[in-house]
Q: What sequence folds into this?
């Protein structure tokens, strides 16, 4: 199975380890991700400025994937929501669709609505499945507690994203089960991390981030596991900036889901880019390794009895 790999703008520049670890994990299950140089921004930054300017970039990306005969796999939640929004609007507004296609025709592109948009967690959950993942694991965690934060755009508006139950999401938890890691129920797990307010109201942005850090730490977590790239930047970059102003604040290290799963698949931490997480120290890596159980033993085949 092959997908057109849509990374968005932030991940290739600021969170390369998300793409690296996701690619390594999916390759383990026979899924190939094709990087498409022609892809552009999903349009999210123009969302509150101009509706057409917001939709056109996503429609163009979908048309490019269609021309290649590929569905799109997304790892950025904002990109996922933007692409799903574009598909939803194009299906309902034939006049706007015609206008978009008149623009795309200048590049010999046409949007027909045939390319599907898949979040990588959905692919792991539906196409691979927890049982197959379990069979592929070479190690399991013995006592790892993580606080998953999905972010806003993958869960809401649920009629657009159609990712999971927005009130009680279960996909990530079900994917975590085979690894032995425990997904904690913690205060703030379904709330905004504050990234959307950065640069607009930094005080409130920092307050929301601190609330999430405190909620996860109070629950006894080892690591925060953000699904959203903006949540990752909040916890892995902004958290360090906050700690500089408040040295007494205990740092909450970040471990991405594909990094966690990759370790259980036997992939090296360097190949998963774990050391690229700003909040991860060599001590944290040692701690993660200490929580991995011994390699799963291969079942020994019984030898047929030797004839007398």
A:
């Amino acid at each position: 199975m092959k997908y057109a790999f849509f990374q968005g703008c932030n991940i290739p520049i600021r969170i390369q380890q998300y793409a690296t670890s996701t690619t390594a994990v999916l390759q383990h299950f026979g899924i190939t991700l094709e990087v498409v140089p022609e892809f552009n921004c999903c349009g999210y930054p123009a969302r509150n400025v101009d509706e057409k300017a917001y939709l056109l970039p996503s429609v163009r990306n979908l048309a490019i994937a269609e021309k290649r005969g590929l569905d799109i796999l997304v790892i950025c939640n904002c990109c996922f929501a933007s692409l799903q929004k574009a598909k939803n609007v194009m299906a309902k507004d034939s006049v706007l669709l015609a206008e978009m296609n008149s623009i795309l025709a200048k590049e010999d592109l046409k949007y027909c609505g045939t390319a599907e948009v898949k979040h990588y967690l959905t692919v792991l959950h539906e196409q691979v499945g927890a049982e197959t993942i379990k069979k592929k694991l070479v190690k399991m965690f013995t006592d790892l507690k993580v606080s998953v934060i999905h972010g806003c755009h993958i869960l809401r508006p649920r009629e657009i994203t159609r990712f999971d139950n927005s009130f009680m999401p279960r996909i990530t938890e079900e994917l975590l089960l085979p690894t032995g890691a425990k997904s904690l129920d913690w205060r703030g797990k379904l709330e905004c991390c504050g990234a959307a307010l950065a640069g607009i109201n930094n005080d409130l942005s920092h307050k929301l981030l601190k609330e999430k850090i405190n909620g996860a730490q109070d629950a006894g977590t080892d690591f925060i596991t953000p699904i959203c790239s903006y949540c990752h930047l909040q916890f892995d970059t902004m958290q360090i900036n906050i700690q500089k102003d408040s040295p007494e604040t205990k740092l909450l290290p970040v471990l991405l889901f594909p990094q966690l799963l990759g370790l259980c698949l036997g992939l090296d931490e360097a190949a998963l880019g774990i050391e690229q997480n700003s909040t991860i120290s060599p001590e944290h890596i040692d701690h993660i390794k200490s929580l991995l159980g011994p390699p799963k033993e291969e079942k020994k085949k019984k030898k047929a009895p030797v004839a007398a």
Notes: The first strand starts at residue 2 and ends at 6. Confidence is low (pLDDT under 50) at residues 298-304.
